[in-house]
Amino acid sequence: MKTILILANDETTIYNFRRELLRRLVQEKYRVVVCFPEGGKTQNIIDIGCEFLDIVISRHGINPVNEIKLLLEYRRILKAVKPDLVLTYTIKPNIYGSLACQLAKVPYINNVTGLGSVFAKRKALQKFLLFLQKRAYKQSNCVFFQNKDNYLFFQNKGIVTGNMRHIPGSGVNLGLHKFEEYPPEGAMLKFITVSRVRADKGFNELFEAAKRIKCKYGQVEFHVVGWFEEQVYESIVQQLVNEKILIYHGIKSQEEVHYFIKECHCLVHPSHHEGMANVLLEGAACGRPVIASAIPGCQEAFEEGISGFGFEVKDDMDLENKLARFIEMPYLEKAKMGWAGRQKIEKEFDRNIVVNAYLEEIEKAIGNHIKKG
């Protein structure tokens, strides 16, 4: 039995967006070992038929001592698990997992889920991370990219020179995120944002736009689902809740998120950067129009003016304009926009497309490694 080791920085990356791949690998008789910091969905992943290894990862910090510890821990895990292939997700597993695989002479496949928040900040850190990624991907059997702009960026910078493929994000489970009838005409108009609550997810712009929209239109609701990744927002959100600007629902499971989305008329995603915004795919799959930042990783999820609207990133005035434009649309046009979104997702973002691409590259990588002896 061949062993596949999967490295990620949190359970959401694996359970919410890759469990169909896990099931397929188990069905294909692979031994599947997953490694990420333990969380609430760990047992669900074990129930699929996977083995689990806990690990400590600082998702955002760049402490040299901790980074070296992570590399050494990955080396130890590789020696213990003895995988035939390693799959990595998100920047730290991509870098340190890949370097550990190079040292152990184990084939590996990477998934670039986005450029990350650091690429919008310090230039020196950006250059350092690009250098590390160039070293990490040098011997990769395949590097998957979730949007075309990231693909071209890494290609043009010479960071990836080997096998690279563009896939439709993580895809969407069309059964779980089934089409839902549009809310009835005359119901309170509801917008929903589903995201980690932090600055680079566009919450400052959302809050400012929501305040003005509430003053102008009144009978509109803004719903937020997610957790506070930057604690400063706890008091801000509570104040907005008290002022009846927002309705905050906290952390919810994927199934619960689907319920909240179907109860709303439009999904809003004002993020500053994305690999591929899964929530936009899920919202559109549900049959809801989307309003999102006009950036790579968001633009791919909708057709402008047909299934959603894009607005200038970090521009709360433009976001307000698009919210107002949507509010003033006739009911049937809103519903038609939602149906157009579902059709696009069915055609372009079925998760089986992603799973099949992985199976193809996994079989190729293991086969080539065996040939090399």
Please describe the topology of this protein.
Blueprint: E1 3-7, H1 11-27, E2 31-35, H2 42-48, E3 51-53, H3 64-81, E4 85-89, H4 91-104, E5 108-112, H5 123-137, E6 142-145, H6 148-156, E7 164-166, E8 189-194, H7 203-217, E9 220-225, H8 232-242, E10 247-248, H9 254-262, E11 266-269, H10 278-285, E12 290-293, E13 308-311, H11 316-327, H12 331-348, H13 351-372
Parallel strand pairs: 1-2, 1-4, 2-3, 4-5, 5-6, 6-7, 8-9, 8-11, 9-10, 11-12, 12-13
Helix pairs in contact: 1-2, 1-13, 3-4, 4-5, 7-11, 10-12
Question: Could you explain the architecture of this structure?
Answer:
The protein is α/β, with parallel strands linked by helices and 373 residues long. It folds into 2 domains: 192 residues, Rossmann fold (3-Layer(aba) Sandwich), CATH 3.40.50.2000; 160 residues, Glycogen Phosphorylase B (Rossmann fold, 3-Layer(aba) Sandwich). It is built from 13 helices and 13 strands. The strands form 2 sheets. Strands 3-2-1-4-5-6-7 form a 7-stranded parallel sheet, sandwiched between helices. Helix 8 links the parallel strand 9 and strand 10. The longest helix has 22 residues. The chain is globular, with a radius of gyration of 21 Å. 43% of the residues are buried. The mean pLDDT is 93.
Distance between the termini: 17 Å
For the secondary structure, the number of strands is 13
What is the overall shape?
globular
Number of domains: 2
In which order are the strands of the major sheet placed? 3-2-1-4-5-6-7
